[in-house]
Amino acid sequence: MVFQILDQNELCDYYDLNKNPGINQRSKIRKGKFDFLSDKKIQSRLISFQDEVQAHVTFYLPQMHCSSCLYLLENLHRLDENIISSKVNFIRKEVAVVYSVQKISLQDVVETLASIGYEPYISLNDLDQKRPAINKGMVFKLGIAGFCFGNIMLMSFPEYLGIDATETALRNSFRWINFLLAIPVLLYSAQPFYESSWKSLKHKFLNIDAPIALAIIITFIRSAWEVIDGSGGGYFDSMTGIVFFMLAGRILQDKTYRQLSFERDYTSYFPVAVSVLTEGKEIPTALPDIKPGNTLLIHNEELIPADGILTRGKAFIDYSFVTGESVPILKEVGELVYAGGKQTEGNIEILVVKEVAQSYLTQLWNREELKNKKEKSNTSFVHLLSRYFTYIVFAIAAGTAIYWMVHDQERLWPAVTAIFIIACPCALLLSNTFTNGNILQILSRNKFYLRNAQTIEDIAGTTHIVFDKTGTLTSTQFQDISYSGTMLTAYQLQQVAALAACSSHPLSKALSRHIGQTKKLDVIGFKETAGEGIEGFAGEDLLKIGSYHFVTGQVDRRLGTAIFVSFENKTQGFFLFKNHYRDDITTLLSGLKNNYHLSVLSGDNEAEKENLKKMMGNNVTLRFYQKPEDKLRYIQYLQQKGNKVMMIGDGLNDAGALKQSDIGIAVAEQTNNFTPASDAIIEAKQLPRLTKFIRLCSANKNIVTTSFVLSIVYNIIGLYFAVQGALSPLIAAILMPASSLSILVITFGSSNLLARRLKL
Amino acid sequence: MSVIIILLAASISVAALFLAAFLWGVKSGQFEDDYSPASRILFDDKPTQSTPTKK
């Protein structure tokens, strides 16, 4: 179908550009799915610019993955002539479309995109806040600092090499140019340091930026004084250089993964609007406008956005989002359905009893204690180190001041200011930012993405690791199926497969896939009892496949998921479905269990208890039947006992726990998939290597400390000259780049070396 | 000596030109997406019609 559209419009190059351009998992789009886009209020929140002729709108297309996608999406105007232009930002997976408003509507644009397989992802999150743009200000500051630093270095060479004292005019012009060039660095480029230190001082906390800001200002004043006075060239080169290197480190460390979002909340999962039934008509309504008492029409494969009572239809709800349990649950009319479930068969109507923001699931996210928890944790050991460092520097400065006060008052100010110039903890900041930045980069190369640099330290400090079972330790895509009972012949197996293939229930599908259909058998009289099982004539026998109750007519509670099979009402046996553990997960667990306390939380039943015990040893805490709230409480309980908790989970059901934990790691089958708010995102395939990642994070502190010790050596040399009041610009100009460069070499070298040794 | 001053002015203004180019590049978002321009140039025909679009 897509091919036809492309062929008509001569866009077949699409298939030549890339070997496998298509993504064939496209689900058919329900007619009227995008009706809500005709709502003016929703429109105005999506469209970034509009006049009488055209409108600009940007969509997020997670399906975008190759250059063919790029080609196709930038040729939208050939599919629909009313689309004026489209431009792709591949890194952000966004397409910006300009279309003519008189001829087509926003809905048409979205439907065009959906028809070629790129259904835009539109969620409440998009409406409420734009995704943060990258901080261009920092790059501007870095550029200007670099420009000034380079030129000042050049102008300072005559001074270093001892310019002839007779050429005073030339020397003075060099100095004044330096002076002018240093002003933008002082006033503009160094701003982040002032801001951050001011903020921390207001909170009565001395962070690493405070002494640095002080050093920058003192250096500038001292140097300006020298230039005006005509007594020397000042230390503009050192000052601008330090600012430049520190900004570079900051940018490297704060480099964000634009394609990932660590801040998703429930609104990202929910649709923008649902159909509200009023007097028999379907009216698309934005989620926040839904009031208790409304009747919602939930279509097949749609999420239930609010808690409600089922009023019509048979609900067959997949709660895998909320509980992690993958088998759909049957609900009858009159029963309560919770938000977050996905209707899997046919349409249903529900009567809303609670607003979206107050439903059981969303309340978990809106807890007060979760909101302001993360801000307090800004206590990196670097700040602590820098505080001691600052006290020592102040002590030395005071000592020097007293000494020179007694002996030679002339040299007091030169000596004291020189101390502050030479001994700022820039080296510490440099080593910290560059190591962090490099480690973040190494980890992201291995598909492990951290929210920010602080997370590295948090990971290193973990004492207790909590795993979610379903979807984290086990894979959601595969299941282990084993049969026990009377042996089935190959032909009988084919009968089972043929019957199972008729049903769309996930277990039936898994079963028919497991057996593998080789023969085509006609199925007559197929009947499905939702939530119970299926029956019908496959070949010549009457088969029943389903729950124990369905097949035998007797009540029985059995742990684990089992499907019973009967031929002509004679029960033969059952297929047992077991979670499929991810490959190498045993290695990971046995690697971790010696160094950390481990826990496993599961929303499932205890069928896997023995199996897990075997893998993880007896020291592990296993908890089953855990609701999302129980998981959160368990994390809180561990934290109260003084543990630093790392929670590893997927899906919405772990969202509360991920947020509460000290480090929440979200597991994603693909990094483009949506993950709940967390501190880190890991690709499921990389999970077994977590031990290595943790080891790399732990090394961070050692690397920073080592290079800090080295920088202290440089500082002592500098201080030796400074206390005597004999710090010449040349010594400063040698010490500064030497210490900065050697720190860069150490941090990059050692973190890369370690990564190579860990085979990352 | 005055030659040096002229050279100085020349060198700084050339450097300033590059700085301006860099700032313009950052501002117009040239560093934001390093994948699409590289592939876009390989497509045979012009991907977008040059229509006057106002910002």
Written overview of the protein:
The complex is a heterodimer of chains A (760) and B (55). Chain A is elongated and about 110 Å long. Chain A has 760 residues and is of the alpha+beta class. In chain A, the strands form five sheets. Chain A has a seven-stranded mixed β-sheet, sandwiched between helices. Residues 19-27 of chain A have low confidence and may be disordered. In chain A, a hairpin with a 4-residue loop joins strand 3 and strand 4. Helices cover 47% and strands 19% of the residues of chain A. Chain B is built from two helices and no strands. Chain B is elongated and about 55 Å long. Mean pLDDT of chain B is 77; it is low at 47-55. Helices cover 56% and strands 0% of the residues of chain B. Chain B has helices at 2-27, 36-40. With 55 residues, chain B is mainly α.
Topology:
The complex is a heterodimer of chains A (760) and B (55).
Chain A: H1 2-8, H2 13-17, H3 40-46, E1 47-50, E2 54-60, H4 67-74, H5 76-79, E3 83-89, E4 94-100, H6 106-115, H7 124-128, H8 136-160, H9 168-189, H10 191-202, H11 209-229, H12 236-254, H13 266-269, E5 273-278, E6 281-286, E7 295-298, E8 308-312, E9 315-318, H14 320-323, E10 329-331, E11 336-337, E12 342-343, E13 348-352, H15 360-365, H16 368-371, H17 381-407, H18 412-422, H19 426-445, E14 448-450, H20 454-460, E15 464-468, H21 469-473, E16 474-485, H22 490-501, H23 506-515, E17 523-529, E18 533-538, E19 541-546, H24 548-552, E20 561-567, E21 570-581, H25 585-592, E22 597-601, H26 609-616, E23 621-623, H27 628-640, E24 645-649, H28 655-660, E25 663-668, E26 680-683, H29 690-723, H30 729-757
Helix pairs in contact in A: 8-9, 8-12, 9-11, 9-12, 10-11, 11-18, 12-19, 12-30, 17-18, 18-29, 19-29, 19-30, 20-29, 22-23, 29-30
Chain B: H1 2-27, H2 36-40
